[in-house]
Amino acid sequence: MGRSADMTPPLRWRLGVAGGVALVVLLVDQLTKLEVRAVGEALHVTVIPGVIDFMFVRNIGAAFSMGEGHGIAFAVLALAVIIAIAVYLVRAPQLAHLEVVGMAMVAGGAIGNAIDRLAFGFVTDFIATTFVDFPVFNVADIGITLGVVLALFGYMFLSPAAREVDATAELNARDEARAKRKAQQRGERARKIRERNER
User: Fold this and answer.
1) How many C-beta atoms surround the C-beta of residue 143 within 10 A?
2) Higher pLDDT, residue 76 or 52
3) pTM of structure
């Protein structure tokens, strides 16, 4: 199999792991939201005093309650992101394993929030930080944020493709240095020949 057809890790592994991770994020997200909606407005639980509370918030915007009033547009955007991730996972010749996990977390979170928007017209948020003024969020938001971080880390530091680029640059630098040494040697030989002829 040629380099152009290389699939590292194998396509079956990518799809299996990505599907499994995305499904776990989606299930945890939807089950926690189901419980939160069942309790409703009465929900206000201190999980870690001074750090995290649980409270029911209807978010009609994007992740972390941003961009309110554009729920359908964000659902369409989420669909585009999911399709882009799927295409990348299938077509990229080389990927780091962590990239696959990270992108699957993003996809699972995006699907979870998109389901909320399409089914209810809002996203169920319930995790509130009390030690800092920060928008209320949910498990899907955590999956998206953490997934982006993992995917970027995997691409920048662990990706076989990135290592191949580094190796190519190193080989090019070596070739350039070798060419310079040969040019210097040729110049030195030419100088010595001229000196002998002048004698």
Assistant:
1) 28
2) 52
3) 0.76
